[in-house]
Amino acid sequence: MRSFSKATIASIAALTLLLTGCSKAEVKSGIGSADKKATVTDMKSSDYLEASYDELKEGGELHLSIGGAINPQLNVGHADMDTGTSDLWPWTNPQIALFDKDSNWYANPNFISSVKSEVVDGKTVVTWDINPKATFNDGTPVDYRAFQGMFKAFNETNDEYAVADTDGYKDMESVERGKNDKQVIVTYKFQYPWWKKNFEFLIHPAATKDPKTFNEAYLENARPEWGAGPYKVESIDFKAGTLVLVKNEKWWGKPAKLDKVTFRALEPEAEVNAFLNNQLDAIGVGTQERLAKIKDMDNISQYTGVRIYQGMLELNGKSDVFTDKRVREAFFHSINRPKIVEIAFKGLNYTEPPLGSMLLFPFVKGYEDNVGKVGDYDPKKSEKLLKEAGWTKKDNYFQKDGKDLEVHIPQFPSSQNRKAQFGAIQAMAKEVGIKVVFDEHKPSEYPQILKNRNFDALITGFGSSNPFGIADTCQVYGSKSVLNKTGLFSQEIDDLCQKSIRSDDEATSIKFGNQAEKKALELAGILPLFSGPSVVATRKGLANMGAMGFVQVPKELIGWKK
C-alpha cells in the first residue's frame, strides 16, 4: 500500500530509522568510497542491528520522532492517512504482514496461525487461520468478522467509506467464515497474483460497521479499546505533538521489552537538536548537514540501506494554471532533474539517475523508466509550449491577461538541503519565465492542504509498505484513486490498470502496470524525482530498528540489546 510520505514536512532524510554498529570513530561522512560514488545498486536491502527476543534487555525506553505533526487521522485505512499513521499503527494494532531480510512476506504468528493460497476454478482462494488467542483490547475476538469488515469498507461498493486503497479488495468475490469463527476464506473473482498485499493490517469490526464510524472514529482519537498489539496508547496530545505507548497487559504474545515508547512531532532543526541532546534515540542523517552534526557524537551507530521512498513533483491538473497540458509540460521541461538529484545527495558521495517510476524501485525486478520525454530538461521547448498555449513573455515572466504565470507550492519547515531543492526549482522555472511562489505553512496544515488540493504543485513523495508495487497501479493511477491528487485520468489508463490486476502471473501484471504508468505520466501530472539511500544514526545498542528497507519485524522485537 502507498501512503504520502512526510518528506514534505520533515527532513528528506528522516523517513526511515536505520542503524549499524559503529562507534564515534566509525561514523561515516559519506556513503561511497573516495574514488567512486555509490549508487542504489550498491546499497544493502536492509542494514540494522539484529537481535533475537532473548538477546534484548528487559525494560528501557525508546524516543522517536514522527515528523512535524501527528496526523489527526489515526485510521491507517483511511484516505487521509500518511506514513506517520502507518508508522504508529502496528505498535498498538493488528500487524499482519511481516517481511524478512530478503523481503519475503510472512504472516505475523501472533495473529495468523497459518495461511494457504490455491487456485480453484480459475480463482485465487486464500484460507486464513487466525490465532485462537488473538483478541482486541475490548475483549472482541479477532476472527472472520474483522476480515469481513475490511472487505465491506474497502471493496468500492460504498463510496462513502473514504479508504486509502481498494486494490485487491474490490477484486474479491467473497469473504466468508470457514470451519469456525477463527478461519476465514477469501475468494477472488479471478486468479489474483498479489493477494499478499491485502490484509496487511486489521481494523476492529466496530470501526468498519458504517462509513461515519470509519471516517470519524479515529479523528484525534487512537481508540485504544479497539487496539490489539504489544503496546497500548497511554496518552496523546495533538497540540504538544506527543504520543506515549506502554506495555499492553492484554497482549497474548511475547511481552514487549520496552517499558515506554514516546513519539514526538518535531520540525527538522528541532529533531536534529533533540538527537544531539540525547532526547531522541534514532534520526535520519541522509544529508551532508546532518552527517556533519553527528560526526563527533559518542556511542551511536550508523546504518545505510535502500530507501523505501519515491520523491516526486505533483501538479494539480484542476488548478487554473495547470488545466492546459502544454503548461504542465512546459513546467516539467523547465526542471533539471539530474541537478535536483545532485543537490539532494550533495556531500553523501552517492548518485543515481532520476527516478523513472512511482510503482517500482530501481532495485526491484520489473522496474522500468516510464517517464519518457516529458521528464527531459528542455528550456527552449518549455518556452515554445507556453507561447503555443497563449502566454506572452514580458520582462522576466510569461503573462496572460496582464497576470504573471505563477505556480504556488506549499512549503513546510524543512532541512537546508530541502530548501536548496526548493530554491533550485524556483530558479529553474524562472529561467524559462515561470514564477514559482512558495506559500509557508505549519506542518499541522499538511493533511488538509493535501485533502483539499490547495496547491498548484506539490513537492512530495510516497512511502510503501511492501515490495508489491505493481499491485498499487490502480491506487496510484486509477480514476478512483484518492492518493493521486493530479485529477488527471483516462479510460485507457483504467483499462491497463485492470489488465495488470487481472493478470494470472506477476510478469504479465508488471508488463501492463508499466504500460499504465507510461500512459499516466504522459499526462504531465506527476514527475518522479529520486529515491536515494536511507542513512540513520541511533543510540548504540538499539536493535531491530534501522535501515530496514522492506523489512518489517514484530514490534515486541524492538528494544535494547543486552
UniProtKB/TrEMBL annotation:
Signal sequence, start to end: 1-25
Origin superkingdom: Bacteria
Gene Ontology terms, MF aspect: peptide transmembrane transporter activity
Keywords, ordered alphabetically: Signal
SUPFAM superfamilies per UniProt: Periplasmic binding protein-like II
InterPro entries in alphabetical order: SBP_5 (IPR039424), SBP_5_dom (IPR000914)
Ranges for domain Solute-binding protein family: 117-478
One matching Pfam family: SBP_bac_5
Species, as recorded: Boudabousia liubingyangii
One GO term (biological process): peptide transport
PANTHER family: MONOACYL PHOSPHATIDYLINOSITOL TETRAMANNOSIDE-BINDING PROTEIN LPQW-RELATED, PERIPLASMIC BINDING COMPONENT OF ABC TRANSPORTER
Protein name: Solute-binding protein family 5 domain-containing protein
Keyword presence, Cell membrane: no
